[in-house]
UniProtKB/TrEMBL annotation, chain A:
One Pfam family of this chain: ESCRT-II
Principal subcellular localization: cytoplasm
Subcellular location: Cytoplasm
GO molecular-function terms, A-Z: protein homodimerization activity; structural molecule activity
Keywords of this entry: Cytoplasm, Protein transport, Transport
Family under the similarity heading: Belongs to the VPS25 family.
Annotated gene: VPS25
PANTHER family per UniProt: VACUOLAR PROTEIN SORTING-ASSOCIATED PROTEIN VPS25, VACUOLAR PROTEIN-SORTING-ASSOCIATED PROTEIN 25
InterPro entries reported for this sequence: ESCRT-II_cplx_Vps25-sub
Superkingdom of the organism of origin: Eukaryota
GO biological process, one term: macroautophagy
Designated name of the protein: Vacuolar protein-sorting-associated protein 25
Entry GO terms, CC: ESCRT II complex
UniProtKB/TrEMBL annotation, chain B:
Gene source species: Oncorhynchus tshawytscha
Keyword Acyltransferase: no
Subunit note: Component of the endosomal sorting complex required for transport II (ESCRT-II).
Signal peptide: none
Function: Component of the ESCRT-II complex (endosomal sorting complex required for transport II), which is required for multivesicular body (MVB) formation and sorting of endosomal cargo proteins into MVBs.
Similarity section: Belongs to the VPS36 family.
Protein name: Vacuolar protein-sorting-associated protein 36
Length: 174, 356
């Protein structure tokens, strides 16, 4: 399934940071949602600032418009404030993109677990993310760092516990 | 004769031709040289003689080497025009005294003058430079003192003018009934345009002066028609040009114009002075409705898809400055949004607001 671009993507002003505050709010909201849905579609979990500038999302060659680096950082800051992005370094060159927040992943995983009556069972992380049983699930293929965070979120909620085993980590659901 | 050198007869960059004289014969001492009929050219740097028959034959002597010259009675037959010869002699004297070649040296090195101080050829050069510096200093001093002469004369005149205006203003005050208010205003404005502060009122700015009030009333009358023509709005600079062009003689200063315009509202004139965020000042009709302007601007932009300030100006017959202000205002109110790229600044309808 090919990615569907929103109408703003073909609207040249979308690529200029708007001075009018209200307009800018709407603009940034649209950018955040576009960035996240693009990452979700392509299953991107980390982004580097350098590559991002050339990425079709921010550089629309067809209409010859691109978002300035300054504006990209502002969009990323918005994402960070909403909890969808985390910087990996102080210089802001690499970041983690959470187009679904850990809490949301945790909820999905727990739903699957309880739906299949597997509460009180122990899973290895590998089983959860890459096992055959979970192949049709959205969280299948989830990168480990994200999986751990999701489970930690469930742990905070008292719904799971992360355990360390001989050959890795595992989780028990309650 | 031995100081003449062969030359191509062409003048250097800094050299100018002063005068030329035809039918000149060159004599070396008492003997007639092999150079017969030719043209003598006097330039700022050298004296050139060119053979008329054989143009390639051309010799020159740098003026710096001419120590002395004298006029000799023309030879037998008076083949030379005495008037012209005189003229040549005068010019040569002048060139020698001005020594213009010293201030603009030629590119070829002039062999140093072989005068009695043969042993100190270098010193001549330095003395020449020193002389040049001294001359320049004297020239500058002369200029400055001349300029100040005029200035002190001007100051004396100005003082007289101020005294005169003061006395007249007092007379006006005394004989209130004789001179009409209008004329007083005109007289004061005349003085003001000459740069002499109005001697009667102490305030030169601020919103209290009678002069500004009167001026505001005048402007209210003058500007109505032009404003209507221009769609109800004019930049203050346009007003300034218009009013001063119409007045011709008693010109307004920018400060006076601004102060007068500020009084429109208090005088209940149908005009307003308006200042945009960017600092641009305009005079507009009170009946001018900004909302109408904005909504019509939005219609225009929507119609064309997008507009730059220049395109909008052309469409409406407004100046680019005012059209940009209107677009910016529409953007501020959220009706338009901008597209800023290497292609320029364009305004689009604000679809962020209107579309989900």
């Amino acid at each position: 399934m090919s990615f569907e671009w929103p109408w703003q993507y073909n609207f040249p002003p979308f690529f200029t940071l708007q001075p009018n505050v209200d307009t800018r709010q709407k603009q940034l909201a649209a950018w955040c949602s576009l960035a996240l849905s693009y990452c979700r579609h392509h299953k991107l979990y980390t982004l580097g600032i350098m590559e991002v500038q050339e990425c079709p999302v921010f550089n629309h060659k067809n209409i010859d418009r691109k978002l300035s680096t300054e504006a990209i950082l502002i969009v990323f800051e918005e994402l960070r404030k909403k909890g969808n992005l985390e910087w990996l370094d102080k210089n802001k060159t690499q970041c983690l993109v959470m187009w679904r927040r850990p809490e949301e992943w945790g909820k999905l995983i727990y739903q699957w677990v309880s739906k299949n009556g597997m509460v009180n069972t122990v899973f290895t992380l590998y089983e959860l993310a890459n096992g055959d049983d979970t192949e049709s699930e959205e969280f299948h293929g989830l990168e480990e760092w994200m999986l751990i965070r999701s489970l930690q979120a469930l742990q905070t909620d008292g719904k799971a516990e992360v355990i360390t085993m001989d050959d890795g980590k595992g989780v028990k659901f309650f | 004769m031995d100081r003449f050198t062969w030359s191509n007869g062409l003048l250097e960059m800094n050299e100018t031709l002063v005068i030329q004289q035809r039918g000149v014969k060159l004599y070396d001492g008492e003997d007639k040289a092999k150079l017969d009929v030719g043209i003598a050219l006097l330039s700022t740097h050298q004296l050139i003689w060119r053979d008329l028959k054989n143009h390639e034959c051309c010799i020159a002597i740098p003026l710096s080497q001419i120590i002395y010259f004298e006029e000799q009675a023309a030879g037998i037959g008076k083949s030379q025009d005495p008037i012209l010869l005189n003229f040549l002699k005068e010019r040569l004297t002048e060139e020698l005294s001005q020594k213009r070649w010293e201030s603009t040296p030629m590119s070829q090195p002039i062999p140093t003058a072989t005068n009695s101080q043969t042993g100190r050829t270098r010193a001549v050069g330095i003395v020449g430079i020193e002389r040049k510096i001294e001359e320049r200093r004297k020239e500058t001093e002369k200029n400055i003192s001349e300029a100040f002469e005029d200035l002190s004369k001007l100051m004396v005149k100005a003082k007289e003018m101020v005294e005169l205006s003061r006395s007249i203003a007092n007379k006006i005050k005394d004989k209130q009934g004789d001179i009409t208010e209008d004329e007083t205003i005109r007289f004061k404005s005349y003085l003001l345009s000459m740069g002499i502060a109005n001697p009667v009122t102490r305030e030169t700015h601020g919103s209290g002066t009678h002069y500004h009030l009167q001026l505001a009333k005048q402007l209210g009358d003058i500007l109505l028609a032009p404003l209507e023509e221009r769609g109800g709005m004019m930049a203050l600079t346009e007003v300034y040009c218009l009013v001063n062009r119409a007045r011709g003689m008693e010109l307004l200063s920018p400060e006076d114009l601004v102060n007068a315009c500020k009084m429109f509202e208090s005088l209940k004139q149908p005009l307003r002075l308006r200042i945009f965020d960017s600092g641009v000042m305009v005079v507009q009709l009170q009946s001018h409705s900004e909302e109408e302007m904005i909504s019509s601007a939005l219609d225009n932009v929507t119609d064309k898809g997008s507009l730059t300030a220049e395109e909008f100006a052309k469409l409406l017959g407004l100046s680019v400055l005012l059209s940009k202000e209107r677009l910016l205002l529409a953007e501020k109110m959220g009706h338009l949004c901008r597209d800023d790229s290497v292609e320029g600044l364009r305004f689009y309808p604000n679809l962020f607001n209107s579309q989900a």
